[in-house]
Design brief:
By secondary structure, the chain is an alpha/beta fold. The chain contains eleven helices and 13 strands. Helix 4 packs antiparallel against helix 10. The structure holds N,N,N-trimethyl-histidine. N,N,N-trimethyl-histidine (AVJ) binds next to strand 11.
Length: 350
């Protein structure tokens, strides 16, 4: 068994996808979003240092059941989930962050071929990869710094894996509007082995079918949903407003944080929570030298959090080329962790 330390593999971490990360300019993207109607900001921008801290605080809130529920499901069913992944797999985690939940699976996967955490934040990715390597010295850890919404190439593990399984916990899929979610599911399908692009040689014919372990939040009582995104302590409001502070610093903006208000409402037609920042008055904000006007009560949409029924998720997954194989849930049926396999139908290749 080969024992490979992260430090000795530094050259491989210089993934060719790296350049994509710096490509879209923050300022250009922010201006495009704020000039559209309705005004929009990508939820990606929440996660600066302080935003990541605030999100960690959100996960501890009594109203925010999502993280607790998913962790509970992963803890209870780690063995069964590991069994669905199978021996000698390459586990690719999309948006790995601190890789905290992954440990629950890694504990049950002693013969994983390698673990590939994929994240856009290089410093967090590398720190997390170091910690995983320290905790699992026999595991080959191959971090890939990439924007996972774009196709990227996988680093090549020393061992040839039997199959590739993508891990996408956290209900992050809910942040993508359905067309973008389908696009992302297709990227995952390609990574897990649907075509030659982005594929490493999964040579064993025994079970080459790509797998996906995904966590998503279910449609439930409106009050429960709205409270999860508008907590009594005001942490989510702070998290939402922090994006403006971030733009003041990183996009040369002069938002008055006192003049915007956090709002989180359930949209029953679209089956999603819509997080917004409402302008408290008519005002003009400068962003990188450009002046944009905000009317009183005008909203900036900062995040959509889509919720699914088992049926609506199955339809979404099918559109992305995946079929549900197993479901793990909690007693209240608040959340699903599912194991899916790529569709192998004749017209679904690639
Ligand atoms: C990290 C996208 C899963 O949608 O619940 C939490 C982000 N936003 N509170 C979610 C979030 C406000 C979170 N995800």
């Amino acid at each position: 068994m080969q024992k490979t330390r992260l430090a000795s593999r530094a050259p491989q971490t210089a993934n060719k996808a790296d350049w994509r990360v710096a490509a879209p300019s923050l300022v250009a993207d922010v201006l495009r979003g704020l000039k559209s109607a309705p005004k929009r900001l990508s939820p990606m921008y929440f996660y600066d240092e302080r935003g990541s801290q605030l999100f960690d605080e959100i996960c501890e809130l009594p109203e925010y059941y999502i993280t607790r529920t998913e962790t509970d499901i992963l803890e209870r069913h780690a063995r069964a989930i590991a069994a669905s992944i199978g021996p000698n797999a390459l586990l690719v985690e999309f948006g790995s962050g601190a890789s905290t939940k992954t440990r629950l699976l890694l504990d049950q996967l002693p013969d994983l071929a390698a673990y590939v955490p994929v994240d856009i934040s290089r410093t967090h990715l590398m720190a997390a990869a170091q910690r995983i390597t320290a905790a699992y010295p026999h595991l080959e850890v191959l971090p890939a710094c990439a924007d996972f919404t774009q196709p990227f190439s996988l680093p090549k593990p020393s061992r040839t894996p039997t199959r590739i399984v993508v891990f996408f916990p956290g209900s992050t899929i809910g942040n993508f509007d359905p067309p973008a979610a389908i696009q992302l599911l297709k990227v995952m399908r390609r990574i897990a082995g649907g075509s030659s692009h982005g594929r490493i040689s999964a040579t064993s014919p025994a079970n080459p079918v790509g797998g996906l372990i995904i966590g998503f939040d279910l449609v439930k009582d409106t009050t429960v949903l709205e409270r999860a995104y508008d907590d009594a302590a005001g942490v989510t409001a702070e998290f939402n407003l922090n994006v403006l502070r971030r733009l003041n610093r990183d996009a040369g903006a002069d938002f008055d944080l006192q003049a915007f208000q956090h709002q989180a409402v359930w949209n029953p037609e679209m089956q999603r929570i819509e997080m917004r920042l409402l302008s408290s008055r008519d005002q003009i904000v400068s962003i990188a030298g450009e002046r944009l006007s905000f009317a009183e009560d005008e909203a900036i949409i900062t995040e959509h959090c889509h919720k699914y029924t088992p049926q609506s998720f199955a339809a979404l997954a099918a559109a992305g080329g995946w079929s549900g194989r197993q479901v793990w849930t909690d007693a209240r049926e608040y959340f699903h962790v599912q194991y899916l396999e790529q569709d192998m139908g004749p017209d679904k290749k690639g």
